[in-house]
Design a protein that fits this description.
The chain is mainly alpha-helical. The protein has two domains: 83 residues, no CATH class; 63 residues, Winged helix-like DNA-binding domain superfamily/Winged helix DNA-binding domain (Arc Repressor Mutant, subunit A). It has eight helices and no strands. The chain starts with a helix and ends in a 28-residue tail after the last helix.
């Protein structure tokens, strides 16, 4: 009955679209998508739906789908809309390895002196040297020096087996190439 459904579409597509627009406040794209969904569902079940009830069935199905589209849009949000309004896209989901790495970085940061910790945190928050200077009461040059020292200390801490401000181990003494001198006895 392909001809029957085609005739039904010609007669009912405009009324279904109008009824859905009246019942659901959403974008025209959502209305069209919901109506398209209803027609596809109708074609799959055309033998189950009485022709006299087709307008009501299509309208109800399209309204339900429009509400689902609205709900999905609110949950997921539109990336284009977020970028247009200047919002950052959501951060990707982070797993246990990333959380462990963050924890390690925080542990390293805790090993810095309090003054350097504050300055590094302010820098990580996006403040420039002048803003950090105003926030801490230090000169810009002091802020630069403290950041330099903090970076050097963090780099040293990230090397395996090192501790901050550790005294360097002396180089090994040169090997002796001959017989050892006798030990003095008392």
């Amino acid at each position: 009955m392909i001809g029957d459904e085609a005739e039904l579409y010609r007669t009912l597509s405009a009324p279904v679209l109008q009824r859905v627009r009246q019942r659901v406040r959403t974008s025209p794209e959502n209305i069209e998508d919901a109506c398209h969904f209803a027609w596809v569902a109708f074609l799959r079940r055309s033998d189950e739906v009485a022709r006299g009830a087709a307008l009501a069935w299509l309208t109800t199905t399209a309204v339900h789908e429009a509400y689902k589209l609205i709900s999905r849009g609110q949950r997921a949000g539109s990336l284009e809309r977020a970028l247009e309004t200047g919002l950052e896209p959501p951060a990707p989901q982070r797993g246990p390895p990333e959380h462990a790495q963050d924890h390690e970085q925080l542990e390293l940061l805790r090993q810095l002196p309090d003054r350097q910790q504050r300055i590094v945190i302010l820098r990580a928050a996006g403040l420039n040297h002048a803003e950090i200077s105003r926030a801490t009461g230090d000169t810009e040059r002091t802020v630069q020096r403290q950041l330099y020292r903090a970076r050097a200390t963090l780099a040293q801490l990230q090397q395996p087996g090192s501790t901050p401000n550790a005294t360097p181990t002396p180089p090994p003494s040169p090997p002796s190439w001959g017989p050892k001198p006798p030990r003095a006895t008392l």
